[in-house]
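Narrative of accomplishments. A recurring question from our advisory board has been how the design workflow behaves on a single, concrete structure rather than in aggregate. To address it, we present the structure tokens for one chain from the evaluation set, followed by the sequence designed for it. No filtering or post-editing was applied between the two.
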């Protein structure tokens, strides 16, 4: 059984306001939405999507590990620093935080989720007409686990 991390979501803030129009004109793989004052950028290495707000807040979605998420955050911060002309100042990533981790694993056997739901009624939620799998809400560590009859397990909400 192997556990694979599929998505890491993080956010941080920069200690400056970002001129999104200037950033969009001097960068590539990005689109600028003036109405919502959001710039979205797609990075190739590590592969992820970045949302930059003019207040300096940055959200990164789609990295495959925590290290890749930190690397993407540093490279985006450095790129913003260069484009804004703040290379002589120290620009740090404030309040860097991993918000969500999505991981999957597959058991080599099927799971009888009806029996699991009957055995643990307080921790689980299963409504066959509404959802495909059983939802198990964990308290320590706080996460949500979706269990399918095929043996596939998806863990979300980990930090």
């Amino acid at each position: 059984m192997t556990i694979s991390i599929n998505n890491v979501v993080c956010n941080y803030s920069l200690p400056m306001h970002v001129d999104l129009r200037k950033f969009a004109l001097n960068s590539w793989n990005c689109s600028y939405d003036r109405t919502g004052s959001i710039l979205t950028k797609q990075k190739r290495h590590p592969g992820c999507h970045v949302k930059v707000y003019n207040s300096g807040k940055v959200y990164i979605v789609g990295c495959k590990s925590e290290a890749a998420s930190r690397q993407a955050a540093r490279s985006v911060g450095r790129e913003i620093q260069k484009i804004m002309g703040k290379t002589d100042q120290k620009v740090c990533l404030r309040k860097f935080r991993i918000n969500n981790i999505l991981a999957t694993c597959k058991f080599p056997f099927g799971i009888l989720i009806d029996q699991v739901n009957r055995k643990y009624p307080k921790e689980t939620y299963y409504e066959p007409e509404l959802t495909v799998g059983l939802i198990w809400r964990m308290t320590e560590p706080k996460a949500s686990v979706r269990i399918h009859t095929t043996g596939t397990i998806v863990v979300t909400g980990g930090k």
